[in-house]
Amino acid sequence: MIKTTTRTALALKYGMSYLTFNKRIKAIEGLNLSPKFRLLSPRQVQLIYEELGEPE
Hints:
The chain is mainly alpha-helical. The chain has helices spanning about 5-15, 20-25, 40-50, and strands spanning about 5, 40.
């Protein structure tokens, strides 16, 4: 089950900085990111996993 998580926590799981991670996920269509919110919904996390693969 995929849970809500922060962008920072997910960036750490992928082993990249927050800024690099943000640049990578901005290119994902259908993600609908808001600059105000750092939380990612389970659906957004699923889209990121589909695009970047699941972190190890």
